[in-house]
Amino acid sequence: MNQESPKLNWLKSSYSGETGGNCVEVAHILANFRKSTYSGHGQDCVEVAELPCGAAIRDSKHPTSGHLPFPAPEWTGFLSAALGK
Q1: pTM (two decimals)
Q2: For range 56-77, the mean pLDDT
Q3: Do the beta carbons of residue 60 and residue 45 sit within 8 Å?
Q4: What are the boundaries of each domain within the chain?
C-alpha cells in the first residue's frame, strides 16, 4: 500500500442543497480487483483491491454485489493475523 494518492475528480453530490450551505462532494476511485493468493481453486474465491486508504475485498462469483472496504490499519492487522505474524 505504498501507492501515491490518485488525482481525484470531485463532484458535487445531487443530494447537496442549492443554497451552498450543506454541500457534499464525492469522488470515485477505480479499484483493480485481483484474485487473492489465498483463494481456492474451486468455489472459495476472494478478490482484493489495494486502495490509497486501505483495501477492499469482494466475492469473485458476485463482483457486482458490492465490496467490503478496510482502512489501512485494519487491513494490515488482518494480513498479519492471516500470515501468523
Answers
A1: 0.63
A2: 90
A3: yes
A4: 31-85
